[in-house]
Prior knowledge:
cell membrane, membrane, transmembrane helix, 76% helix, Threonine/homoserine/homoserine lactone efflux protein
Amino acid sequence: MDSLTWxxxxxxxxxxxxFPGPVALLCTSHGLKYGRYRATATVxxxxxxxxxxxxxxxxxxxxxxxxxxxxxxxxxxxxGAYLIYLGVKAWKEASxxxxxxxxxxxxxxxxxxxxxxxxxxxxxxxxxxxLFFAALFPNFIDVNAPQLVQFVILALTWLVIDVALMSTYxxxxxxxxxxxxxxxxxxxxxxxTGGLFMAAGGSLMASQR
Length: 209
């Protein structure tokens, strides 16, 4: 892989990752409610999900999923249902966002392990990402050169940019937390977040390949 190909890949994935999706929304939400440092667990969970999807796709399972209508349907329904569940849960949440929802988050917040699991589950819930990685990587891999090394370079580049951008979303959430101290604004935040998650879930369930 030459440097121009790598730079083109960086430009493509930066544009793709920076566009806010369910994981970015979750990182922003957790940054606001639990602080940017605790939300790092959410970021890492989402990044691990991307690594798993990349690896599975490279093993050819993405192609298998693309060929199996029933498997794709089942997985997208499960993923969409989970996103809708998160949306309903956020919509019903009535608690006020803590005024300490920044780098000095309170000790009573959600456990780090749970934040990590939430990030991973949301990240892994979209089977279309398997098809996405299966379609993306071949465009940047030289078949005449060692492919494993190229895959590692592409994967690591994705992970570094993913961590940087999702951490930025978490910082944005933490930075605007002061604005959501009032019950009315906290309620607006929860309902907006819930609505977006439900929309994402419904979109996934209704989507085609």
